[in-house]
Amino acid sequence: MKLSLHEIARVVGAKNDISALADVRVNKIEFDSRLIEAGDLFLPLKGARDGHEFISVAFEQGALATFSEKALIDKPYLLVDDCLVAFQKLASYYLDKTEVDVLAVTGSNGKTTTKDMLHDLLATTYKTYKTQGNYNNEIGLPYTVLSMPDETQKLVLEMGQDHLGDIALLSEIARPKVAVITLIGEAHLEFFGSRQKIAQGKMQMLAGMAKDSLLLLPADEIVDAFIPQGQLVKRFGPGADLYVTDLLEEKESLSFRVNFLDQTLTIPVTGKYNATNAMVAAYIAKLEGVAEEQIVTALADLQLTRNRTEWKKAHNGADILSDVYNANPTAMRLILETFAHIPRNESGRKLVVLADMKELGPTSQALHEGMIDSLSPDDFDQLYLYGQDIKGLADLAEAKFGQQAVHYFVKNDQQDDFDQLVQALQSDLGEKDQLLLKGSNSMNLAKIVDSLTN
Ligand code: 2GN
Fewest C-beta in 10 Å: which of 82, 182, 353, 407? Predict the structure, then answer.
């Protein structure tokens, strides 16, 4: 990261006197104390727990300083009113300073695919970086910006919306040169109330965009009312500015033509909507100066990331919310809140599988037990808890939900009830049910998702 401690203090308006601290280059900024290395700056955020509780851990790990909302004794710190606001301000400043081009992607489904495609196309020609995992919110986006490698030229940022106003904030931080809204999705999977509201939220992408920056929009009339006069816009879809023709679906690939390139494109991905995603990525890449030949080859060699927070269908029709990516108390709490707010299917139940979060240190049991506050029998019908450190949570849950609603499966050095867990889910999951899975990667929940979907 090309930022020094004094420069950071100036940009965020640190309120304490830091002139006695050396103005050294900061290695990187981390909000998870487990990731702090020598020379890093710690950012205490309010997650499931208040990050200020972990400031001493961060220093033991080698932090050179920390942000803080309160005065500290004997530790180098930058005093700010709000650590998250400071972080966002710094990210915005860093984008200005580095003059990187920001390409933003949002949308209901397909935003990750489009982001990955656009990244791979731009990376043929430029130093390109993209949002990792689900780092697409008000914390993840500034983190992505401040984690990009030095000399990055193109930055592909994914933006997610959980509440109205989220996209406006993210867009104001990132000020995209080009942005795409991939799709306005179905209301029942987004708890926004209506497609109208979803569209309104995504169109707030315009909040941080200049009039001559380009917004790519689906040919879906629901967004029409939100397009301001004079905004540079291109529409994609049948009969619009950009469209797909000659679509051929093979067993494991798609080939098609688009109306702005000469050659036929092939992608190693199925699902017709992915032709549209690839078309949009190809259009932006072409605008950014990537040669057609490069576009064709990069699309043929796509590497897509899988298994993030996403809705899937079980073979019996049940809805599965699979989130097996990052396991920390905050992420677990957030996904439980999200899942709780989604209305049940008619005559369907809500099932939750939680597995151990790894590497939480000496207080791991307690951090798992803290999840009980996010588990209410009003929201969830059956709980499946799997692991070792999660045992205490299973006991608390039994007291709160009753024995018949809580199922605990062991995984430790001696014993692994994985097969029993899969078996139980296979037989319990009804076709109208909704199922959430969350836990550390090494708990193999992805395998459960596979076995329920294939
Ligand atoms: O949802 S997120 O994962 N997110 C990231 C950004 O993009 C979108 C998704 C997320 C994670 C968010 Cl939005 C916000 C936060 Cl604050 C976090 C986060 O990392 N939260 C974490 C904790 C909380 N609460 S990480 C973490 C690790 N920590 C426990 C608490 C915690 C490990 C730890 C445990 C015990 C000790 C030290 C560290 C300890 N040492 N105890 N005694 N001595």
Answer: 82
